[in-house]
Design goal:
globular; nine-stranded antiparallel beta sheet; six-stranded antiparallel beta sheet; alpha+beta; 908 residues
């Protein structure tokens, strides 16, 4: 067991608070729903980036390379000034939704290089230009571009020409849970010496200005370079600053004079340090050396190609020799322990480049944790929309007044999406459990707590509209995590699984009651996370009237049923009272699956002529029509497949007769789907929508390179629609779907994502999972052409492996030494200080694999680490023998010598 594995175990079994401090600051708190008190709900403009330096936040904090405690009482982050910028660089800049030609987008270069699960070691890189940051140019140029034009990026402005920039590395190492060593290394990549103001900053989240009579905490200078911290909940602690740093104190209070032309509450305000550094106003900071915000001001000059290092230490007690030899030895030890930890996680079969990608993916997952605080009832009351005494209408979330969140949560992207999304989170857990099963379980548990889950049983979607509908993948992630944690920790947590099952049963009932309009097992659901994939905006009333029966919504529910069956079979072995739930969810699955396959005059979702699934438009006059778009919607039924080994029925033979009678009386249920009574490899049973014939038909389309199969994974819309757009006419209006492999050309759902062609990692991950389930049932003798028409036959394990290889190749150097993720961006492809820095984008170009959308969506794109681990540590024979995906992930080849897990992911 490595030292880091021991710390994870200590945190779990001994409650040693190794995770109390971590990367829990957001990258962007401004422009969020939580900070929006406007009548119109215009969150982006109510609290802007320009205001952020001067205005105290209500619900959270942000900062560069920041850390905080797990209640975010005390925060630490970095501020910089190059002598040319109009403001201090205290937070990342980006475009609002209306400013970007493809929606909101961060316009900075920063990288999550490394982190252990307990954050005993972390590393972050920020690239800071030496010339003035082109704020106005970035905004004006992007605003002037159309949706069919590329985004205007920071590299396009020329500020990195001649390498005139600083690489600023920030490293954290814990000597103990309450003793954090901080090392800031500034590298001048330019051809001439350059000066830089470096301002490590410590501050309290403002909890005292909102009417709770909360005590105001205090920061004060105790002696030269030493800041004493006093907080009612955190107690006393100290920030030690090495060298000749000037301590600048102010208050984390809004500058009302600047923003609202009103008197300030205090003489010293949030942007005082900006005024002092940028504008030379020495009177802006508190000469008494106390406040609620402090920066240690260093001015350094770094030679061309040289570097300088600054050291600080945040601890519960003032060390006698904070920067003695022990500092370097701890930092060195934690780096080494991080290498050892990842050597134990990353399969030794991976190449050095593969190991680098996998490690940075997992580092990004761990850096994407954030303290998320939102008391909706309080927020509604503060804006005059108290649910019990409303004075005005709230623009959103007024039916979610029970919701109270104050937890560390894995974010999709801490700048573009600095709020949790329930279905994203279910995918995050797949990667997170590679390194920290406890945190993964906690994340799943959060969404089912009474302060999250709606009394109706609905899981909250995201803060812009908690009542929106995300795909029901929580049950799948739960059963996966349960199996994995049991194998890794040597014991199962049946109580946790039962608790989750009971809450998920409430959520299942909500779906059945709210989204199955006709009670026939054909579900709606709205956009279901797939934004613009449909002919119409699926979250709005249809221009035709009527409603959609959605192939994806129905397939998701079939999948949900099977996850609940799988969970119930496990629970019923220990909790006999739950045996009936196995039958309940199995029968529900059969009704839904058979409903998907109904055709003929009823125009079901399955099209027998095409061998594919489509949404069905139900018109007010009773007519029905399939909307024949070849999209991920039609591949989703492939996911709904689970293999069972038969042990449950052996232990409960009475149910065999119940199932047999049920099916004999209802032969239509299994007429067109896979027969669940038919035994497969090793006597296994398969519950699936697709029988063998239809599975082959769907796979032939999916694996066709002229349709879905890209060199980099499975596209979200078939390439067939590049030359054959689907068009639907309503009166004089045309609605259509064509193949768009890159960015969206419409403003639907903000225009910042596109499901009409690009490759999305989470959906590909589910396709891989489905293929492996079929492989466990059919075995090696079931083969298909891959690619279709190539004459190359593969079993379904090999198909899954091939898709995973294509997905991973997005990030890996190809034969020309280029990473497809960076497209034609020469700096990232050729510069030695850029080319091994990996960004995990939201989605990827359907033809060339270039990264698109949010640039730090390590959340669900990080599941590429799970895929790399899966096929780097198993074979088809092992998979068939074990018969469980969760068990498979623990099968590792013996490690001869040192693993390539010690790849260079931390190097300067």
């Amino acid at each position: 067991m490595t030292a880091e594995h021991s710390r994870v175990q200590e945190a779990r079994t001994q409650k040693i608070p190794w995770k109390k401090w971590g990367p829990y600051l957001s990258e962007r708190q401004w422009g969020t729903v939580r900070e929006d008190y406007s009548e119109s709900g215009d969150a982006w403009n109510y609290f802007s980036h320009d205001q952020a330096r001067s205005r105290a936040y209500r619900w959270g904090e942000d900062g560069l390379a920041g850390i905080s405690d797990d209640h975010q009482y005390l925060c630490f982050a970095l501020a910089l000034w190059n002598g040319n910028d109009p403001i201090l660089k205290e937070r990342l800049f980006g475009l609002t939704n209306s400013e970007g030609n493809h929606g909101e987008d961060v316009k900075e270069y920063y990288f999550y290089l490394d982190s252990t699960p307990t954050h005993s070691y972390m590393k972050y890189l920020y690239k800071y230009p030496q010339s003035a940051y082109p704020y106005d140019t970035i905004v004006a140029t992007n605003r002037g571009r159309g949706r069919r034009e590329p985004e205007y990026e920071l590299l396009d402005t020329g500020v990195f020409d001649d390498d005139r920039y600083f690489d600023v590395f920030v490293e954290y190492a814990k000597d103990s849970p309450e003793d954090i060593l901080i090392e800031i290394t500034v590298c001048n990549r330019g051809p001439a010496p350059a000066s830089l103001h470096v301002l490590p900053t410590l501050w309290f989240r403002n909890v005292w200005s909102w009417g709770d009579n909360a005590a105001r905490p205090l920061l004060r200078e105790a002696s030269g370079g030493l800041v004493a911290v006093s907080h009612a909940d955190l107690g006393e602690r100290f920030l030690c600053c090495e060298g000749a740093a000037t301590l600048l104190f102010t208050e984390n209070e809004t500058n009302n004079e600047r923003l609202f032309h009103a008197p300030n509450r205090t003489p010293y305000v949030k942007d005082a340090i900006d005024d002092y550094i940028v504008h030379g106003r020495q009177e802006a900071v508190n000469p008494k050396k106390k406040g609620t915000k402090v920066s240690a001001h260093y001015t350094i000059t770094v030679g061309a190609g040289a570097s300088q290092t600054l050291r600080l230490r945040l601890s519960a007690a003032a060390p006698a020799a904070p920067f003695g030899s022990g500092f370097d030895s701890v930092m060195t030890a934690r780096r080494k322990e991080a290498d050892e930890f990842y050597a134990a996680v990353i399969p030794s079969s991976l190449t050095e480049d593969q190991a680098t990608v996998m490690r940075q993916a997992l580092a990004g997952m761990l850096w994407s944790k954030q303290f998320y605080y939102y008391d909706v009832e309080r927020w509604l009351s503060e804006r005059g929309a108290d649910p019990l005494n409303p004075k005005r209408h709230a623009p959103r979330n007024d039916h979610w007044h029970h919701l109270y969140n104050a937890d560390i949560i894995s974010m999709p992207d801490k700048w573009e999406y600095p709020w949790y999304a329930a279905w994203d989170l279910a995918f995050h857990v797949l990667a997170l459990t590679l390194v920290d099963e406890d945190f993964g379980k906690q994340q799943l548990d959060l969404m089912l707590r009474e302060t999250y889950l709606h009394p109706s049983g609905q899981i909250p979607a995201y803060e812009w509209n908690f009542g929106d509908v995300n795909p029901p993948v929580h049950a799948w992630s739960t059963i996966f995590t349960y199996r994995l944690a049991g194998l890794r920790q040597g014991e199962v947590d049946i109580d946790w699984l039962e608790h989750s099952f009971n809450k998920l049963a409430l959520n299942f009932t909500w779906w059945v009651n709210r989204k199955d309009r006709s009670g026939n097992g054909a579900f709606e659901g709205g956009f279901l996370g797939l934004d613009n994939i449909g002919v119409f905006d699926r979250s709005a009333p249809l221009p035709t009237g009527g409603y959609l029966e959605q192939a994806d919504g129905t397939a998701w529910m079939a999948f949900f049923c099977l996850n609940m069956v799988e969970t119930a079979t496990i629970l019923a072995m220990e909790r006999p009272g739950l045996v009936d739930m196995v039958f309940k969810f199995t029968s529900q699955f059969l009704w839904i699956a058979s409903g998907m396959m109904r055709g003929g005059q009823d125009a079901g979702m399955w099209d027998e002529d095409d061998g594919f699934f489509y949404d069905v438009l139900r018109l007010p006059d009773g007519r029905a029509q399939r909307l024949k778009v070849r999209s991920m919607v039609g591949l989703l039924p492939l996911f709904a497949a689970v293999v069972f080994d038969g042990k449950f029925l052996e232990n409960h033979p009475e149910l065999q007769g119940v199932f047999r009678k049920f099916l004999q009386e209802r032969p239509q249920l299994t007429a067109f789907i896979h027969d669940p009574t038919k035994l497969g490899h090793s006597g296994r049973r398969l519950a699936a929508i697709l029988n063998e014939t239809n599975l082959r038909r769907v796979l032939a389309i999916m694996l066709d390179e002229n349709e879905f199969l890209s060199p980099y994974g499975i596209r979200s819309v078939s390439r067939y629609h590049a030359g054959h757009p689907y068009v639907f006419r309503v009166g004089d209006q045309e609605y259509g779907v064509s193949y768009l492999p890159a960015e969206s050309d419409t403003g639907m759902f903000g225009g910042n994502s596109n499901w009409r062609g690009p490759i999305w990692m989470p959906m590909n991950g589910l396709i891989v999972r489905g293929l492996l389930q079929y492989f466990q049932y059919y075995g090696k003798d079931f083969t298909v052409e891959c690619p279709t028409g190539s004459g190359r036959l593969m079993n379904l394990y090999e198909v899954a492996e091939e898709i995973s290889r294509r997905l991973a190749s997005i990030f890996l150097r190809n034969k020309d030494g280029r990473r497809p993720v960076y497209g034609g961006t020469r700096k990232f492809q050729e510069d030695p200080h850029w080319r091994d820095l990996i960004l995990f984008y939201e989605y990827f170009h359907g033809d060339n694999g270039a990264g698109l959308g949010a640039s730090h969506q390590t959340g669900w794109t990080g599941i590429v680490a799970r895929l790399m681990h899966l096929f780097g540590s198993s074979t088809a024979d092992q998979f068939l023998e074990i018969g469980s995906l969760a068990a498979l992930v623990e099968v590792e080849p013996e490690r001869p010598g040192q693993s390539k897990g010690q790849a260079r992911s931390r190097g300067r």
